[in-house]
Amino acid sequence: MSERPFHHGNLRTVLLDQAELALRTKGVEELSLREIAREVGVSHGAPRSHFIDRKALLDALAERGFLALASAMRAGADSRTEYAESLRAAGQAYVDFAVANAALLDLMFAAKMDQPPASLLSAAETLFSTISDVMQAGVEAGVFREAEIERLTLLMSATMQGVSTFVGAGRVLPAGGDQLIDDAIALFLGRPIE
Predict the structure, then answer these.
(1) Which of 40, 57, 76, 88 could form a disulfide bond with 93, CB atoms 3.0-4.6 angstroms apart?
(2) Structural domain of residue 128, as residue ranges?
(3) Is 151 exposed, middle or buried (0-12, 13-18, 19+ CB in 10 A)?
(4) CA–CA dist 66, 165 (Å, integer)
């Protein structure tokens, strides 16, 4: 097999883009550095300059996922001025991301057998810090107490993860998922569900 010249400006980004596509279409078990290299038109050894092995590639994908989800939630929350709407928009952003990127989300939250790299831990912390910031804004809005923020952060994540799982599995239609988000936000805010 002859090696083809590489013409992409940023090989690492191109490899991650292709790996994310492969993850979405084929699943994590079928993801291979050699196949990704073939798909982007580089030698099978070229990815090794960025990812020492398949695990490093998977860790980089998970890191990228955590940062993208945090960014989506932040954008959702920042798109509204009234706190209840901001909280709901952040929750919707979580569910939208999770449903659209189910395989990536599974990878992000998969148990790691050995110590994950610091960059992956930092990316996961970015997500939870973002959720915490969204909940912290509720303290400033007079909705929550400071002492509740840590628990509310985990509860928000778990709740939106659960809604995402039901919608992604087809157990709940997207409109039903929207209603579940509305109900969850009402409960967070101490309001009756309608």
Answers:
(1) 76
(2) 53-188
(3) exposed
(4) 17
